[in-house]
Structures are given as structure tokens and as C-alpha cells.
């Protein structure tokens, strides 16, 4: 499996780290705080953190090019064949949109 | 047919032409009390225990390919019970005890070989973690010995003890652990279940569920027609999400590929199983002489049953770092299997929210050793409608309730378990 990075060209997949399915969207935290953890929000977080479609076929997913330009990428890849049909730069997504960095004010 | 030294001698006299089928090849009936989806180790063991222990004999195992064509026939055959967390410890020890009596129970030579497993450690912190694990095991009546480098060197003189990054300081040994012949386990359960009246039906893919007005599952649609069922148990490992989706369920599972490797056969070298976790490498030697080894998951979702080069390279580098002599051996074969990676690395044996449908899944890369206990406890659930004592923590709703069993402490990132 080789991934055509829009910045670096085609590279072997060992240069990349996998985050996973791009579909799960983090629910708004605000709602959870206001509602004091209302059942609906807790349910939404359970869904986001733990449940997966686990698609057998084409799936949109995030990869990180740590061994190259260190960009977040969004791929469309077939999990049944490993065929990759699209690679796009995805700045501001992937782990950079994960809870740690959303909350983070380290800098 | 009962297998013994006499049946072997008798068959030898006829040039081995008199052997009867090991299991029948029945056409599916229109209805069974219990239908099990998936003819891997777990599905067949479940059917065996349903018939043998719980007296439910009107049972079918439906397998889309041939039995053992999934992970049961692709794994590296390690059996052990060196788990630390409540829920796992007792369950895997139950499994180990069932391995110890399996050949007599099934009247089948599954080549269970308690040749021991050594998990190597390379730092004080890792030694402390292994000492703790060993103590938990011993408190629970499971054998464990913490060895230092001198003791390990006596057993395994060929390892590289002075690796600059990971010098070997010692290891945790479980002597009762070892290996078994994976295909024979599948065949043994098929043989024993068949003798008790279970129908083992191959080339029969489940394509959907039939449900009544209340949503209760009443049977399955298959490539060989509709089959009615009082209850349906799914034990389809890497295909769990796909089969559950047919009933409208989403699971806390991702499917990932794990590779394994076998070298050309060499003379006896490795006495037991050696794991080099720090270097993502583990190895044993098969009875045929090949070195059987593997390492980490490839790390991305896959249903392709094949992996990629970076992990092959990584595994071989780990092998070279641990035992440099391995570089002289040629690689013979390499393959991949699809792992049902759960969100905490621990399996699920439970009812589902769909009435009449029961789930056995989430085995990750460690379900071979679980085969007998998985079969027994899943059969218990199906027969008694309540969880078996040793599997009661393997609940489907544990993620919702904060009762995860995360042996590695990795969190909900399945490719890290
Ligand atoms: C490379 C590798 C190494 C491993 N090493 C070890 C190890 O050393 N020790 C250990 O304990 N575990 C190991 N494992 C894990 C272990 O193999 C699995 O956890 C275990 O085999 C899973 O249970 P099973 O045998 O029932 O699965 P499988 O054999 O995969 O059985 C599931 C069956 O369901 C069938 N199926 C799927 N969908 C359908 C459908 N729709 N209709 C009908 N049938 C269907 C499949 O064809 C398959 O035969 C390893 C796995 C791999 C891939």
C-alpha cells in the first residue's frame, strides 16, 4: 500500500500513522456541561468514542504523514482491497481536532 | 469413529483407505434450536459444548467457506493464561484447564504442547510490571515464575543479551502455556460435535436475519436458503461488524489485519514461546521445524486478509535484534488474518439488544487460546440465558457503563491494543 501525499508524492505506508475513520464527529462539550451530563449527550459521547461502522468497502479516514511533511491527510480507501481513490490535505482535522488539542492551551 | 492406537493400526493395514469421514456433510434442515454463525474454533466449540454439556443437540454451525478458513487456521497457536485483570484472569485459566483435558474430551489429537512461554523484560520498570502480573496469577492459582537473566540464558543461550537498547534482564515464565495444532482444534471440535448430532454446514454464508413482528430473530437467510432458529449465536471474529449490521447493530469493534510468518524448517532450536514485546516480535518453533513468528497489527482497518511491507520489515528487525542468528534462516510463508479489535482489547460474550441474537466477538489477536472457554461460556449463555460465572464481565454494554477491561491501558484506540 502506497499513499500519494499531496505534498511529498507517493510514499510507502510505513511513513504514515493511522488515526482511523473520519466519520465520528466529537459532540459539543457545551451541551454536556449545561445539561450536567444529560443522557442524550452521554449517549452521543459513547457513540463517538466507542461505536464504529467498521465499513467493509470504501471509507474516509485520517492518516498523519509523520515520516514526511507532518501533514494530516484525508484518504478514501477501500478496506476490502486497500485501494486508495483519493488523498487530500486535511489541515485542522485528525488528531489536531481531538479532545487533547481542543482543550490544550499549552503554547 | 473413535480414534485410538487400534483404529490407527487397523487403518494402517488397509493402507489408510478405511478411514471414515471425520464429520458428516449434511444439508441444512429447515429449523434448529440454535444456529451458530461461523465455523471457526469458537463457533464449533460452542456447538460442541451446547450438545455435550447442556444437552441441546438440534444445533447447526453455518460456515461461509470451509471450517477453519478464518483466523482459527491463520493464528500462531499460542495458548497461555498470563492475564492480570479481573474478568480475564479466571476466564483464560478456565480455558487453559480445558486445553489440558481437550484431547481426551474430544477423542482427537490436537497436539497440545505445554512447552512454556517467556515474556522478556528489559528494564526495572518492566520487571516490576511483570512481577505484579506474576503475583496476580499466583494469587489466582495460576503458575508463574519471574526469572533473571542468568536463568533465561540457561534456557535460551542463543538470544542477544547485550542489545544496547533492550538488554535482556529477565522474563516472566508460565510453564503450563504453550502451543496447540490450530487446524486439529477445529477438526477436533467438528468431529466431537458431529458425533453428538450437530450439523456442521460449510459453504453456507449468512446474508441476513429473519425477524418476527416484535423484532425477535427467528432465523437466518443464507446462500443455501432460509433456516429457522430458536436462537442465533454469532461467532464470526473479524466479520462481527458486518454480521451485526445485518441486524441493525453497531459494535465497539474495528477490523484490523495481523500478519504471521513461518521460516523454512530447521532442527529443534526454540524450546517454548518467546515474546519480545519491546521489539514487537514473538516466536516459537512448530513441530515441523519452522520458526513461527509475528509482531504488531498493521494498524489500519482492513478486511483484506493480507498485510503490508512496513510491518514485515518491523517484525524481521525485531527478530534480528533478539536473536541475530535468525538472519540465516529463509522466510517460507507469510499471511494475514482479520482481527475483531474491541475498544478495550477484551472480548464480548453477551446477549444483544436484538431479541434472539447472541454475540461472541472482540477477540483481537488473542482468541485462539480462548477457544475452549469461549465455547463453554457462550454455550452456557445460549442454554441458560445467563452469563457463565467466568465470562460475566465480558458485557456488550461495559463501554457505556465505564466497566472496560483494558489489559494494556491503551484506551479506545483498537490498533494499539
Ligand atoms: C496472524 C494471527 C496470529 C494469531 N495468533 C494468535 C495466538 O498466537 N494465540 C491466540 O490465542 N490467538 C491468536 N490469534 C487470534 C485468533 O486466531 C482469533 O482470535 C480466533 O481464531 C477467533 O475465533 P475463531 O477461531 O472462531 O475465528 P475464525 O476462525 O475467524 O471464525 C469465524 C468464521 O466465521 C465465518 N464467517 C464470517 N462471516 C460469515 C457469514 N456471514 N456467514 C457464515 N460464516 C461466516 C468465517 O468464514 C470464519 O470461518 C491470531 C490471529 C492471527 C490472524
From TrEMBL, chain A:
One of its GO terms (molecular function) is sarcosine oxidase activity. Signal peptide: none annotated. InterPro entries: SoxD, SoxD_sf. This is N-methylglutamate dehydrogenase subunit B. It comes from Mycoplana dimorpha. Residues 85-107 are annotated as: Disordered. It holds the Pfam family SoxD. Residues 89-107 have a biased composition (Low complexity). GO terms for biological process: tetrahydrofolate metabolic process.
TrEMBL record, chain B:
GO terms for molecular function: nucleotide binding; sarcosine oxidase activity. Residues 34-78 form the Rhodanese domain. It catalyses: sarcosine + O2 + H2O = formaldehyde + glycine + H2O2; sarcosine + (6S)-5,6,7,8-tetrahydrofolate + O2 = (6R)-5,10-methylene-5,6,7,8-tetrahydrofolate + glycine + H2O2. Its EC number is 1.5.3.24. It is found in: Cytoplasm. Belongs to the SoxB family. NCBIfam families: soxB (TIGR01373). This is Sarcosine oxidase subunit beta.
Amino acid at each position: 500500500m502506497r499513499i500519494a501525499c499531496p505534498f511529498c508524492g507517493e510514499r510507502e505506508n510505513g511513513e504514515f500513522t493511522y488515526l482511523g475513520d473520519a466519520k465520528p464527529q466529537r459532540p459539543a462539550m457545551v451541551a454536556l456541561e449545561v445539561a450536567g451530563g444529560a443522557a442524550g449527550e452521554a449517549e452521543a459521547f459513547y457513540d463517538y468514542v466507542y461505536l464504529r461502522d467498521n465499513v467493509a468497502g470504501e471509507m474516509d479516514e485520517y492518516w498523519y504523514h509523520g515520516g514526511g511533511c507532518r501533514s494530516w491527510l484525508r484518504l478514501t480507501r477501500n478496506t476490502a482491497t486497500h485501494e486508495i481513490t483519493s488523498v487530500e490535505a486535511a489541515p485542522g482535522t485528525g488528531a489536531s481536532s481531538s479532545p487533547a488539542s481542543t482543550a490544550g492551551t499549552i503554547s | 469413529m473413535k480414534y485410538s492406537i487400534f483404529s490407527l493400526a487397523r487403518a494402517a493395514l488397509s493402507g489408510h483407505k478405511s478411514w471414515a469421514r471425520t464429520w458428516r456433510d449434511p444439508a441444512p434442515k429447515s429449523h434448529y434450536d440454535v444456529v451458530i454463525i461461523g465455523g471457526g474454533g469458537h463457533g464449533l466449540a460452542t456447538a460442541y459444548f451446547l450438545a455435550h454439556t447442556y444437552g441441546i443437540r438440534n444445533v447447526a454451525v453455518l460456515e461461509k467457506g470451509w471450517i477453519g478458513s478464518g483466523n482459527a487456521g491463520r493464528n500462531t497457536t499460542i495458548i497461555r493464561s498470563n492475564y492480570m485483570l479481573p474478568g480475564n484472569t479466571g476466564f483464560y485459566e478456565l480455558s487453559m484447564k480445558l486445553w489440558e483435558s481437550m484431547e481426551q474430551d474430544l477423542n482427537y489429537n490436537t497436539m497440545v504442547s505445554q512447552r512454556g512461554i517467556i515474556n522478556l523484560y528489559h528494564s526495572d520498570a518492566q520487571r516490576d510490571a511483570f512481577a505484579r502480573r506474576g503475583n496476580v496469577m499466583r494469587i489466582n492459582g495460576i503458575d508463574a515464575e519471574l526469572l533473571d537473566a542468568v536463568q533465561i540464558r540457561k534456557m535460551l543461550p542463543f538470544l542477544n543479551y547485550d542489545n544496547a537498547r533492550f538488554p535482556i534482564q529477565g522474563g516472566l515464565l508460565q510453564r503450563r502455556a504453550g502451543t496447540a495444532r490450530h487446524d486439529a482444534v477445529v477438526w477436533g471440535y467438528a468431529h466431537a460435535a458431529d458425533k453428538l448430532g450437530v450439523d456442521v454446514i460449510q459453504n453456507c454464508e449468512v446474508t441476513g436475519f429473519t425477524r418476527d413482528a416484535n423484532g425477535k430473530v427467528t432465523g437466518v437467510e443464507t446462500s443455501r436458503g432460509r433456516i429457522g432458529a430458536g436462537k442465533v449465536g454469532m461467532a464470526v471474529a473479524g466479520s462481527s461488524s458486518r454480521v451485526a449490521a445485518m441486524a441493525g447493530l453497531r459494535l465497539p469493534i474495528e477490523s484490523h489485519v495481523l500478519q504471521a510468518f513461518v521460516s523454512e524448517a530447521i532442527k529443534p532450536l526454540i524450546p517454548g514461546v518467546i515474546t519480545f514485546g519491546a521489539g514487537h516480535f514473538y516466536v516459537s518453533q512448530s513441530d515441523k521445524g519452522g520458526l513461527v513468528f509475528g509482531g504488531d497489527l498493521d494498524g489500519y482497518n482492513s478486511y483484506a486478509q493480507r498485510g503490508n511491507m512496513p510491518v514485515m520489515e518491523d517484525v524481521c528487525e525485531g527478530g534480528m535484534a533478539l536473536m541475530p542468528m535468525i538472519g540465516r534462516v529463509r522466510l517460507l510463508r507469510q499471511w494475514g488474518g482479520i482481527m475483531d479489535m474491541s475498544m478495550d482489547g477484551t472480548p464480548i460474550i453477551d446477549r444483544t439488544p436484538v431479541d434472539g441474537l447472541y454475540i461472541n466477538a472482540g477477540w483481537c489477536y488473542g482468541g485462539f487460546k480462548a477457544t475452549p472457554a469461549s465455547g463453554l461460556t457462550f454455550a452456557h449463555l445460549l442454554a441458560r440465558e445467563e452469563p457463565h460465572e467466568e465470562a460475566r464481565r465480558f458485557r456488550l454494554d461495559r463501554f457505556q457503563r465505564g466497566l472496560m477491561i483494558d489489559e494494556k491501558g491503551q484506551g479506545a484506540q483498537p490498533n494499539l491494543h
